Amino acid sequence: MRQKVFSKDIILVLAATFFYMASPMLVTPLITGFTESIGASAALMGLVGGLMNLVSLFCRPVAGNLADRICKYNLSFIGAVFMTAACVGYIFAPNEIVVIIARIINGFGFACCSVCMATWMSNMLPKEKIGSGMGFYGTMNALAMAVAPAIGVSAYQTFGYRVSFVIALIFSLAIIVVIQFTGDKGEPENMNAERNDTERADAERSDAENTGAGAADVKQKRRLELIDVKVIPIALIIMLFAIPYCATQSFLVTYAEIRGLNVSVSLFFPAYAVVLIVLRLSLRNLFDKLPFHVFLIASALSELLAILFLTIMKNNAVMLLASCFLAGGYGIMSSVCQSTAILLAGKEKRGLANSTYYIGLDLGMTLGPVIGGALYGGLDIGWFYPVLMVTMPLAGVVYIGAGRRMREK
Question: What is the pTM of this model?
Answer without folding.
Answer: 0.72
